[in-house]
Amino acid sequence: MDRLSLIFWLWMLCFGITLVWTLVQVTVGWAVGARPVSAILGYGPTLVKCHIGGILCSFRLIPGGGAVSFKALTEGAASRDSLLQLSAPRYAAAVLLPWVVQVTIGMACLGASKALHQFASGFAMPFELFLLRDRVEHFLALIQHGERVTALGLLSVKMAAVNLLPLPFFAGGALLFLPWRKARPDWVEKLALISFAAFMSWTLYVSYLVITTLF
Predict the structure, then answer these.
(1) What is the pTM of this model?
(2) Which of 5, 8, 121, 152 is deepest in the core (most CB within 10 A)?
(3) pLDDT digits (tens, 9 = 90+) for 70-81
């Protein structure tokens, strides 16, 4: 597979996972009683912005992450987040179920045993910097050799594991601090900023490894 095709399939896999997560997050939000207002797919400059089903959708250049907002601004009133108005069980379901779907996709692609093993090992991945280059090279090799289903399953479970880490910026942190979801202490907000900065640094390092491996 030539380099351009490899980049294309890498982009498509990341976009596909981001799209599935966004669709599930919107669907689960509606199902539990929250109203999705906007959805962002990817990072970087916006390629397309449009309304789909009353939701403002922004498709950005770099896939691999996204966000769904349930916060609406009404005239003469403060911003209101319909997700935060839910009961604790419904809020937890809205946060957790999209990642359960990602793990299920991984199980369909890899088999249950392998997917769960890869999911469990994914929690340590952000801290095992010395293993990242080998992991990136292995992942790109899967795509290059046409094993895109395996690559999809692997990426699905690893992304789910990272996002379920018990830090405020992630879904796992949202579950951990569930009792304080409407009024987080200041130290939690500061920890969220720190975890966000650490995650972005890690993401930039992974991007660097991908680029240097490709070129």
Answers:
(1) 0.89
(2) 152
(3) 987 665 445 678
